[in-house]
Amino acid sequence: MPIDFLGSVFLDGTDIPYWEQIKTYGPAVTLLAGIKWYMGGNNNIWDRDLHGKVYMVTGGTSGLGARTTFEMAQKGAQILMLVRSTEDQWLVDYIEDMREKTNNPLIYAEECDLASLHSVRLFATKWLDNSPPRRLDGVVCCAGELIPRGKPRQITIDGVERQIAINYLAHFHLLTLLAPSFKVQPADRDVRVVITTCSSQAMAQIDFKDLLWSERQYPKGNPLKVYGTSKLMLGLFAKSYQRQLNVYERKDKNPVNVKISIVNPGLMRTQSMRRFISMGSLLGLICYMILWPLWFIIFKSPFQGAQSVLFALYAPIFAKGDGGNLVQECRILKEGSRREYQSEEFQDELFTKTEQLITTLEKQLAIERKKQELKQNKDDKNKNNKKKTTESKEKHYINEKPKTVGELDSRINELRNLIGMGQQLSSKELPLFPDQTVDSIVGKASNPTKRKGKKV
Q1: Is 320 part of a structural domain of the chain?
Q2: Out of 133, 323, 339, 394, which residue is the most buried by the measure of CB atoms under 10 Å away?
């Protein structure tokens, strides 16, 4: 019997080399390998040809977003990465490297700083300002900001807490501004929007009186509360936004074929996670490197985390139904981990209040930008006037005839100084004016006493 044979080999030994070491360490290694395999999660089994399709990606330069972008580019998709600035040599090299590795030249970048609502609006306006409407097959929202523990509150240029601003407000603003583009896509086009969330939403605390966490005390010791709140609000927004797209009536009477998926990719070994665990310090980074074998076992790689995102993009089941699906480990969840996912009223109220907040913020920021613009124009005008006055004085100074000998000497000394000939005349040089005598320059008396003649 096989069991008897294995039992005798394990207890009595065998002629296999290093059997004692295998018997000692084998069970532990097997256990660790099993944990590693289990923590890696499920793999996406679906495939899809993405040639000719256009996708926007946020957070496409690192972590989960970078791996998702790479996988989509290998399938032939045209990728438009939304980045903080396009004037970055590293970004140019990064895109060129990805084009070469994926053999796909259709990878581009556009400026869309998620820390600025104005930047998001500028990009969306530029995208929509095209006739005929541009093709758009999907948006993948992977960008996220996670502040390390112990760090003080950080705000964006708009004055909003950074995690709330980037993780929630920016994506809310981007997707709602792109609504006209979603609604005009052909009815037979399979458009998919993927929003990434996180398990930290279990710690979320949504307060309609303080959605942006501007009045509540910032939890410096546990920033995951704010991060989780931003991710929960993003998921609830997706639910409400999906219903709005579903009820929109097109002119051709066809439904809007846009499906939103809320994906939890799991815990991954990304730059953001490393920064959070190390608490943004050198000592923390050293501890992170020492414990790296532990992180290697319990955390997914970006490739493993991207499997659920790719599942939401590739699986044909998402083209059917009403959308707004929660996805985890390449499976569609029936219910969310929070009761807010079952309350349409709560989701719609969150959508409305967020929309009002963004409108108020944009008005205030527009006024502030106008003030700064007027101030800058005034400063530039004063600077130009001062420059013109200086130039006029210099011109007048050059053309004006010297009135005194000292003024002429001063001007000549300035010219001599410019050409490096010194500032003052040597005492042995000839006089500049004919009424001056050499004796007066070399120190002799200019009015010598006359000799008196003797009387005869």
Answers
A1: yes
A2: 323
Two structure tokens written together for 113: 């700083």
> In the chain, how many domains are there?
2
- pLDDT tens, position by position, 341-398: 888 999 999 999 999 999 999 898 888 888 888 888 777 777 777 776 666 655 556 5
Whether residue 416 is found in the same domain as residue 325: no
Q: What does pTM read for this prediction?
A: 0.78
Q: In whole angstroms, give the CA distance from residue 21 to residue 19.
A: 5
Q: Report yes or no on 231 lying in a domain.
A: yes
Rg of the Cα atoms in the chain:
37
**pLDDT tens-place string over residues 43-99:** 989 999 999 999 999 998 988 999 999 999 999 999 999 999 888 889 999 999 999
Catalytic residues: 231
SS3 label, residue 417: helix
The residues near 41 (Cβ < 8 Å, ≥ 6 apart) are: 266, 300, 304, 305, 307, 308, 329, 330
Residue 27, token pair as written in the block: 């069970």
DSSP E strands in 128-284: the ranges are 138-141, 191-196, 258-264
Q: CA dihedral in degrees (179, 185, 191, 197; nearest 10)? A: -10
Instruction: Give the CATH number of the domain where residue 308 resides.
Output: 3.40.50.720
Alpha carbon of residue 189 to chain centroid? 30
Beta carbons within 8 Å of 126's beta carbon, 6+ residues apart: 110
Separation CA 300–CA 287 (nearest Å):
19
Contacts of 398 (CB under 8 A, 6+ apart): none
pLDDT in tens, 202-251: 888 898 988 998 888 888 888 889 999 999 999 999 999 999 999 998 88
Same domain, 345 and 421: no
